[in-house]
Amino acid sequence: MRIRLPHSPYIANKITLDLLNSGYVKMKSGLDPIKDSIRKIIDLDIKKELALEESVNEKLDDSEDDIEYLRADYKQLFRMVKKRLAPEFGVILNFEDRYSNLSHEILDELWNEDLMDYSVTENKIRNVIYNAISSYINSFEDIEDIVFDKMDSYKRKLQHGSEEFEIIFKKLYEEELKKKGIL
Predict the structure, then answer these.
(1) Are 118 and 26 in contact (CB under 8 A)?
(2) Span 72-99, pLDDT tens digits
């Protein structure tokens, strides 16, 4: 699954907690600087993909007449152009490879910023980071379904996309994350 910007703080928190609970690392400056560094890296990765998708949309918009004339499948063209342009933007499209790359970048950043020490191999630390990302991604849809079910059970129906809906969704989502130990 693709990581979106609203997920970034939750993933950063999950990685930070998993590193802390792993017993492999010693936090030098507390949790917040680590969480902030992780979030910065995740946000940058997400923004690179958003820039890639914007470029793909521009290219396809420029060819809109040809696409319509040829009756080409827009989604398929989008995926093909995105795949072709991904290296130019530094975006890895395979999710496993992407999460692995993120774990390398996160570990390098935390080490270079002198935010933690560890006494095990770098690979063990990267595995903790990778597993935290994968674990969050795998549980995201389940948590979201639970939240939507709770919101559907409200007597007063909430307008999807309204400010009230978003506030209640975020509150319930964070409660579920706490139950799962992610937050």
Answers:
(1) yes
(2) 777 888 889 999 999 999 999 998 999 9
